[in-house]
Amino acid sequence: MMTFDEVVNQERLRECLATGTGKGVKVGILDSGVASDLPELGGKVVGNYEVVEYRRGRPEIIPLAIGEDVIEHGTACAYIIHQHAPDAELHSIRVIGASHSSTSTKLLAALEFAVEQEWDILNLSLGTESSYEQLARLADRAYYQGMLWVAAKDNKRNKVGYPAGLASVIGVDMDYFEDPLSFRFHPERVTEIEASGVYVDAPTPGGGWQQFTGTSFACPQITGVAARLREHFPDLTAFQLKAALASLRENS
Predict the structure, then answer these.
(1) I need a surface site. Which of 28, 109, 135, 207 has the fewest CB within 10 A?
(2) Ramachandran bin of 183, using left for φ above 0, alpha for ψ from -120 to 50, beta for the remaining angles
(3) What is the rounded CA–CA span in Å between residue 6 and residue 47?
(4) What is the spatial distance between Cα 171 and Cα 151, in angstroms, rounded to a whole number?
(5) Which residue segments constitute the domains of the chain, with CATH numbers given?
């Protein structure tokens, strides 16, 4: 078990960030699915699931033999994480469809499933304004079992959304950074972190490349950083990660 002094020791943290690859860390991605056979992902997407919502009864989580991405969103997020943490194990749950939207029922079912899997980190490049109480309960449950949630703020300037706005979650906004590992930390804001989310290069399922802009693509930058740190500090809590990120921030 690490001490709090280790968590905020900038020299030690930078050493871990420089040498970390995410080895041994399991990352869940709730998104539009991931094109798991894409060469740029290095075969690191080892689990693929989809939330199926029937007319009656609870949604079901269905395992998929091969991951597919219907709108390119989830694949870009997976690549960004893989770029920073190439040895991390990735697990995809498709909750967003071709309409670029989902339902709170599907999101809650996917989150509950992810918590049950006990993955280390959850990348949530999505959000909602509804189901606050259920989201908060699941986020607290994840927090107390040691799972880190990293979530994107709403792209609208004056909206935050959930789960990014929850205190137990690492909320991420976007800005432009030359170095994708750079970020700023603002303790006075609901979403404390600004990361690289402008003109982010990532492959598409069809085999090409595209530049993406949005908080959705800033979020996995921090997930990748978290995976590097989690490799060295396996007992890292969300609170401690926030303290570590505050120590590593670009702004003083």
Answers:
(1) 207
(2) beta
(3) 33
(4) 5
(5) 4-248 (3.40.50.200)
